[in-house]
Amino acid sequence: MQTIYRFLIHFFILSTLLMNSINADTLIGSQAILDSADDADWRTPEDKNLLYMQHAKGQVIFELAPAFAPEVIANIRQLVTQGYFDGLAIIRVQDNYVVQWGDSLAGKDGARSLGEAKTELEPEFFRERAGLDIVPLDSRDAYAEEVGFVDGFPVASDGKRAWLTHCYGMLGVGRDYAFNSGNGAELYVVTGHAPRHLDRNVTLIGRVIAGVETLSSLPRGTGFLGFYEDEKEHVRISSIRFGDDIPETQRVSLKVLRTDSRTFQDYVQSRTHRKESWFADPAGRIEICNVQIPVKELE
Amino acid sequence: MQTIYRFLIHFFILSTLLMNSINADTLIGSQAILDSADDADWRTPEDKNLLYMQHAKGQVIFELAPAFAPEVIANIRQLVTQGYFDGLAIIRVQDNYVVQWGDSLAGKDGARSLGEAKTELEPEFFRERAGLDIVPLDSRDAYAEEVGFVDGFPVASDGKRAWLTHCYGMLGVGRDYAFNSGNGAELYVVTGHAPRHLDRNVTLIGRVIAGVETLSSLPRGTGFLGFYEDEKEHVRISSIRFGDDIPETQRVSLKVLRTDSRTFQDYVQSRTHRKESWFADPAGRIEICNVQIPVKELE
What we know:
The structure is a homodimer of 299-residue chains.
Chain A: E1 3-5, H1 19-26, H2 30-35, E2 42-43, E3 50-55, E4 58-64, H3 70-81, E5 89-94, E6 98-102, E7 127-128, E8 135-136, E9 146-150, E10 153-157, E11 161-164, E12 170-173, E13 187-190, E14 203-210, H4 212-216, E15 235-242, E16 254-257, H5 262-272, E17 295-298
Antiparallel strand pairs in A: 1-17, 2-16, 3-4, 3-15, 4-14, 5-6, 5-15, 6-13, 7-11, 8-9, 9-10, 10-11, 12-13, 12-14, 16-17
């Protein structure tokens, strides 16, 4: 069985010169830890928590985090069931920030109906910390007192509240001025340096586990806030479906490293204290959004 | 005179619904501060510190920081004078990490000669802190004891040493295992979440001040480390020139906000304490790589 690591280890070498040596050296690092992980260290995301998005440039698969945003995820399920997103488009690509999709006519004549879905929802910008088992990350975070991981998602907390953090690849719910206006009909993915000032101001609902590069490499919008100025630039979405609502043959077998495993701890340590000989001065520190949670695909 | 802000303010709104209100609300924030800045708050980068790169997908302009890497910048000037980069290509685009260019044949038969330029150079991974006027940023940084700005560049320090930080858009010098192998013939730009573990391990020499989106939107390489697997994917570089070596008519009039100005302090404060009504819970904190140093173009 061939294993393809979908996550991008931030390999340390920046030259083409010593490709063979690179491979050898890498094997004493993070890759070796993952290669020797037990099967039990990897979990299979539940199909009901997966969203498959087909767009003109490829496929993106998201894992949702209902422990953090149950209501808006339920609303998105209602929208998806109605085929709400099918035929809509990616309408905004702002460099070093977000890729966003939804109805370009929202709020105007010709806007698509939300049908049975709610138009307003109590915000889920954060939840109670109580009841969460946060695997701590030893990091001096610029934005939060406590950071760590819950079931494969980056999380921050102030002791009472906990929230998902705006790391690269996180999936969020666009909204207007009203805090209850984020109903899930407009979604965005972070495709730049983590805009952590959005934490607790928007509802995050999950993260990309495959295909983020099909979003991050899209042409940047030249309009205000990175919106495409011409409808012809829109990147059409042919469908968004939940994993439990598509034929088994179309499902992708992805495994996510358990963030509560010893292997994950070893992995984080290897990313913190780089022992590869390339490094002159290993940081000995790591920031939450620089911990890329490993995902692999079984083929 | 029309002013185009090239830097991308991370506007806060994520929806298309209220575009008119957005404009109004934005004007009480960072944009208003920049709009009301004195001319003296903006500096014109010296032509000798600008690099213009023309590639198949557009133009990128870099401002170099000789206070941090005088030797490698001098070596790059030697390479540029020889036309070393002209006709070479962007050969690596790794998602959420770097875009890199140089000679795909480096170290192999047919590699381009470095001519009069040095092949080895003492690394400039950091410099003495002494002699630097660091405008401090009040931020709890994951990687360094002190962070701030020097003449428009993000900087970190441990009290004795100081170094440029690997924020989005920073320009660095690829190297092999040998610390002195970074001669400037292979360069990269950060196009993802700041890989700060590279700080003090690679020489940074400047940052993109225009055109980063022409790099960050390139198709991702599907090879190891994001290298393009097929030469046909290479993005050709027609030329790299210093600003003082191109005709005046081809120079772009860019202004960079002075990081030692009161206006910059006000700008950072406005980005830290978001007063726009959209925010439910402003962070009150900011991280060094989330401070995007404003650049504007005069036309």
